[in-house]
Amino acid sequence: MRAKPNTFRTALVAAALFSAAGLGAACAGSRGGSKAPASRASVAHPQVDASSQSCAGCHADATPQIAKEWEAGRHGLSLVRCYVCHGSTGADFRARPDTAGCRSCHSLQAMGGPGAVAGAEPRSDCFTCHAPHALSAKGKTNPHAGLR
Amino acid sequence: MVVAGVVIETVAGAGARVAARLLREPGVELQGGDGARRIAAVLEGRSGETLEALAQRLVDGDDEILGVYPTFVGSDEGGS
Amino acid sequence: MAISRRDFLKTAAAASALSALGLPGPVAAADGATKWVKSVCRYCGTGCGLYVGVRDDKVVAVQGDPENHNAGFLCVKGMLLPQIMQAPGRLLHPLVRQGDGFRQASWEEAMGLVAARFGDTIAKYGPDAVGFYGSGQGLTEETYAANKLFKAGIRTNNVDGNPRLCMAGATAGYVSTFGKDEPMGCYEDIDHADVFFIIGSNTAEAHPILFRRIARRKETGRNVKVIVIDPRRTATARIADLHIAFTPGTDLAILNAMAGVLFAEGLVDEAFLRDHVTFGEGAEPSRSRTDYERLLADYTPAKAAAMAGCRAEDIVQAARWFGEKGRTAISMWCMGLNQRARGVWANNLVHNLHLVTGKIGVPGSTPLSLTGQPNACGGVRDGGALSHLLPFGRVVANEKHRGEMEKLWSVPAGTLSPKNGFATIDLFRAVEEGKVKSLWVMCTNPGQSLPNVDRYRKAMRREGAFVVVTEAFHPTRTSELADVVLPAALWAEKEGVYGCTERRYQLLEKSVPPQGEARPDFDILCDLARRLGHGKLLPWKSPEEAWAEILAVAKGTPYDFSGMTRDRLREAHGLLWPLPVEGHPGTKRRYVKGEDPLVPAAHPQRMKFYGRPDGKAVVWLRPQKPPEEVTDAAYPLYLTTGRVLEHWHTATMTSRCKELAHTNLETVAELHPQDAARLGVKDGDTVRIASRRGAEKFAVKVTDASRVGLVFLHMHDPDRMCNHLTIDAVDPISRQPEFKICAVKVERA
Fold it and tell me: Best residue in A45, A81, A109, A117 to probe C by mutation, most C CBs within 10 Å?
């Protein structure tokens, strides 16, 4: 492939972001910086007709390994389908789920102990121990010991 | 740990296809797009050089990516 | 605790990139200023406890309650509840009909109009010319208020509700077998069951949190067996050790055949039969065991299998697993048994299996009917808000019961009408005929959910009919037909009690103020009462005040929960009745000596079915009878209806959630590949399905989970209503319609 110019560095220099450390936001000075036309917010997920097919139907072909892992795991059994963690294929699509969402259904585990619910933030990134989709846990000890 | 908000410019109409490929790219977190030729993303890497190299790799490795333009850069030295 | 710097940076980075594209940024991370209010899910009869997260008077999140029976788990519908509260489509102001549309009105004008019209109707045509159609989603205090106003104030028993479409079969089943309504077991029995007998329930999609508990038990128990009886191979059947598919309507034969095997193979509990069981036929408990065994002789496995289109050895296997000595067995069922013209009989036959084996009243052994709605049990069934009932086990037809209620309600003797009112289908037929001229519809959507719906939609728009609908959303398929639509407060905007499947009553605390001009149904009913001159009957300023009266009315009845003070409910995470005194822990297993405070300590046996005069349960002799409408040459396929995971009831709430709006909202026709081939259709093609009552077009989904000769449609889609096709034939005992079975023809469109 032909080498292309490093737009990233060019834009950084042009916008004097190169030495920015911490706060500071500036739009890149090149053509990427102007506002997009005011069209409807669209998807980072490819455009698909989600009403006629479920996520699983398409992803069995598009991402078969992931689909298999999900189906064989706890979320597959309990029908916690793709959109629960990833949103719809619309503007709310999120490729990486926000683990704060896990708390809705796993408040016990997310809080790190029974009884501690209101006010506390999730203890850590659930995906540190739980493989995405298969959700099997890595590691020897169960920090949620005693919980269902 | 350096974090950059970027706009990824693609060939007209290729936005969705490029986004699909970027889903598997480590260090790239998609945030949204205009559906046609611009994708908003967050890049994460160890250092500014890492991010530059990542951006270059994206541009070089995908004919439909025209450019990766940062809109924000922040550094998290010593943070979690 | 503040968010991490890294998360902050990423949020800022994302916002920056998105704003460069002119798109809205991601939601900011929580800042720790969220208030959590204890409550219960708005949706199904599982009754999951949860906390509502509030910030700036808005519901921003929910979390499952770890200390409630659901152990912190929620299904996707409950998880997405925050999105329904401020969805566009919330009704914010009263509406009054103007031609084919509506105009906005003030509360004063709308309520004035309603009170005048109801008052005129009553004055000119008598109390029975008006009616109330309520809901298993109303809070207990709201339903209680409506019941009292109409029965004791207006003096009509035309008070019914959508549990008539849903649980009436289970209610009449429990009442005829055990003397009083409601399951005697609880969710904890799931954790002790060795055998799960799931019939007419797609638990995985309709009661997901209970399904999770069943699946967990299967993993952790010893050789746990799951038997699923369903014409379709549903998502629930994924964990089945045995799935019996059968021709719709023939499950009565299967259940009788199972009982026959239990007797033939010595799996019955002789002592239990002797001590706790009497036998009956029709409505009389005056048969003998010999009579029963004679009936069962007609239902050999081979004969039943031939009737049902299944395998005899499967029936035998199911019976053997269920009956195995020393193992516990729990039955669970839902609409597959209740929404039938012989629904009460189907319920009786499931109870029979438990009674002949004695598998009842011990941990893990119980017939546990699954309730569809969040408060069908607490509000309508227990509360007696049906046309033949009075609160807490009392019935209209019983003079002593009427006298008790007249005293409790401080109304003169003879106030309560001794005549049963109209049950739901009869009520809407009365509207059709002009017998009922003014109808109040609270918190339900009959314009979509009634069987043979076109007939009753016409009735509601009839010249001379005056229909008032209280709703949180507009338009719905019912509010669009109304004369007055009143904006109702929704779920977290009001407080009150819900009672779910396992006799668990729980308090929903108010989290946020109502949207727009919406008011809680409790307030609206008290307002109506005052305007009709019955303010003395509904004098309360809050649901909490009404609760004190409700406790007094329940005291001393077999549904006694008078120990459940408001404070106790606030502090607890649900309480199971009977709970007859403050401080009592509640009752997990009813009718069991030592557990149920209403069983005398000196009772000689381990159980007493004190709802019945002789303390014994009845094994009813019920023959196989076909559904009201069977297939024939003109209409050669069976239609059955049901639910999917993502949506609840008529989807007025779930369709507002981003993740759910495009997931399974559209009703598609599920056809077996053989039927699809014969019709020349494939996935995505359009078919026209017609019954004797109506027709509609649907896209096709070909699946071998269906059965040859059976098409499935779900009930949620307001634009493709399955109820154009369904039949409004009812069970003669429960008056519940047979949504589950009718005959249709399917053609390529």
Answer: A117
